[in-house]
Amino acid sequence: MSTATTPGFTAIQDGRVLRITISNPKRKNALTYDGMVSLGDTVRAASANPALRVIVITGDGGDFCTGADLSAADAYAERGITNEMILDGANGMIKAIVEAPIPVIARVKGSAAGIGVAIALAADLTYLSEDAYLLLAFINIGLMPDGGAAAMVAAAAGRPLAAEMALLGERLPARKALEHSLIAGVHTDEELDAKVEAAVAKLAHGPRRALELTKLALNGAALASLDSALAAEKTGQCELLDSADFAEGASAMLQKRKAVFAE
After folding, report:
1. For residue 22, which of 140, 155, 123, 102 has the smallest C-alpha distance?
2. Is the pTM higher than 0.85?
3. Quick one: which of 49, 72, 80, 128 has the most CB atoms within 10 Å?
4. Hey, what domains does the chain have and what are their CATH numbers?
């Protein structure tokens, strides 16, 4: 067994299984730019490891991932990290998960928001606890969904649900996500771990090439437009990140007040 700790997450290889735990407890597992880039690199390295058969992504404690860490914006500016770089880091992470030649399982408890939704839905098998929810809250701070999240919702559950999540920015409870075939299952805390580990045990002894080709066929059918969606999101989000509405939305969120957008 080997463990690698990177700011924002830990990665433990246990035989044929790589377990990634997103960990930023002060920000409910929000991911920084460095965390997104490193997580993508970690998944790509796992993809090149012929000994591995399955990747599990989860969050530390009571939440999965509450999105990008907006509190790090000032530090990014000081380091010369641009909005384009941040979007490229997020998109690269999501593509690494989708394009991994081995199955990826998302074990989701509590909140999966923003880029956390994209991570959860980019996985091949997504299991939620009963208290979990998906939240595309971008509109609430003057932004649009990114990381391919809205496209993946539309691919799995259809445009109406994707529009409701993206335009209203309201929580989608685990049971409703299952009802719309957006995830693979909803379980109690005890059942969640058992379900994930049962899937891990089966996949860990599966035929790697057959798993790879099966995943490739599934994604080719369901996510053929992902690249174009990521490109459109990058263009739109970079514009919005420079807007007065986003400045107000981000300030309001950090100050825990209601945003007042331009008339």
Report:
1. 123
2. yes
3. 128
4. 2-190+202-209 (3.90.226.10)
Cα separation values, 8 from 24, 85, 168, Å: 6, 18, 29
What token pair was written down for 217? 């066929």
Token pair listed for 165: 């999540």
Task: For CA atoms 159, 160, 163, 165, give the dihedral sign.
Answer: negative
pLDDT tens readout for residues 116-130 = 999 999 999 999 999
| 209/212 Cα distance (integer angstroms) | 5
DSSP structural state of residue 184: S
The number of residues in the chain equals 263
> Which H or E run contains 172?
strand 172-173
Q: Are 223 and 155 in contact (CB under 8 A)?
A: yes
In the structure encoding, which two tokens stand for residue 172, read together?
Answer: 């989608």
Q: What percent of the chain has pLDDT over 70?
A: 100
The strand pairing partners of 49, in sequence order, are none
- The continuous run of DSSP H or E covering 235 comes out as helix 226-241
